[in-house]
Recover the amino acids of this structure.
């Protein structure tokens, strides 16, 4: 892999990690809300 | 991104994964699903209602991703679809398959656990129907492909209704029939003015195999039962005059455009004005009908 490819892979991994973190965070909130709603 | 970078072994950009879910188609699906949910005569906790709509969106996105995983070869041959992530080479097929299967399984599981089993069952049937019956089995084999495929797009209001009530009833079945009968005129209008593309990819779209005249006749033929079903909730007493009158008024331009198309002999896609208009109007028509149905049911309730 050339340095340019290496950098591109890292850049994509970072942005995917960030999006995955946001999605997981949103799911945590959603599942908490579902649990409360189910108990109500 | 530089063009010299070999994209095949790169991890896919998250924007391409998002594009794989066909966000614009998902908007229409979310809207009809939400209308099914809101028109239902049952109260659903807003959080669970939101979850149900989210599951419908994720399921539709999964079906779209799996559709593109299977169709990368024909998408590459058509101008309209050549820039999708797979034919453009921005993502490998395996990633698309894993993403689609994962998203689909997750959406059905979440629907079953958070909402109810009936909604989850219909959701799984709709995903499997779109992927196996439409994409794999019929699309490349018969000019009736989109007629049957339209059934897949007709499931959301049924799922929304089932999410709220846990049942399948006459009104959501009529909404199912409405989208089912709406799809052929909607899609054939499009296929008339992009005909050359389908011919190139070898997809047996009706204008390709049966010609323009037959297709135009079929558009008009499907319009009659579609309008009958659009008005049906009113004369069956499932919706009020607000919906009934709106349905009649909204149907007039649809019928006029369909009639105009059936009389047309235009062969140059660039000057197929009524076809383009019907395609654009058909989307507005569906939004209008569903919106008015919800407004009507809320007034009744």
């Amino acid at each position: 892999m050339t340095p340019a490819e290496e950098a591109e892979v890292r850049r994509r991994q970072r942005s995917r990690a960030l999006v995955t973190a946001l999605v997981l965070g949103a799911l945590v909130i959603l599942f908490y809300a579902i649990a409360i709603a189910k108990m109500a | 991104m530089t063009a010299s970078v070999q994209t095949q072994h790169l991890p896919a950009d998250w924007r391409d994964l998002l594009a794989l879910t066909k966000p614009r188609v998902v908007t229409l699906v979310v809207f009809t699903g939400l209308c099914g949910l809101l028109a239902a005569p049952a109260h659903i906790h807003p959080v669970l209602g939101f979850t149900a709509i989210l599951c419908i969106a994720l399921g539709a996105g999964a079906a779209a991703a799996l559709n593109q995983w299977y169709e990368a070869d024909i998408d590459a041959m058509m101008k309209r679809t050549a820039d999708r992530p797979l034919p453009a080479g921005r993502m490998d097929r395996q990633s698309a398959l894993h993403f689609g299967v994962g998203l689909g399984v997750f959406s059905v599981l979440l629907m079953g656990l958070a909402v109810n089993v009936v909604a989850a069952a219909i959701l799984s049937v709709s995903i499997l129907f779109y992927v196996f019956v439409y994409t794999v089995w019929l699309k490349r084999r018969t000019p009736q492909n989109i007629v049957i495929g339209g059934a897949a797009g007709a499931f959301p209001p049924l799922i929304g209704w089932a999410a709220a009530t846990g049942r399948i009833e006459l009104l959501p079945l009529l909404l199912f029939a409405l989208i089912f009968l709406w799809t052929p005129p909607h899609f054939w209008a499009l296929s008339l003015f992009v005909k050359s593309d389908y011919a190139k990819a070898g997809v047996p779209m009706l204008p390709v195999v049966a010609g323009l005249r037959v297709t135009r006749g079929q558009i008009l033929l499907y319009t009659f039962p579609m309008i009958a079903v659009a008005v049906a909730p009113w004369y069956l007493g499932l919706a009020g005059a607000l919906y009934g009158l709106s349905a009649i008024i909204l149907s007039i331009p649809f019928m006029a455009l369909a009639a105009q198309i059936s009389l047309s002999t235009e062969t140059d896609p660039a000057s197929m004005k009524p076809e383009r208009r019907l395609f654009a109007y058909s989307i507005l028509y569906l939004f209008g009908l569903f919106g008015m149905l919800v407004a009507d049911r809320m007034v009744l309730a």
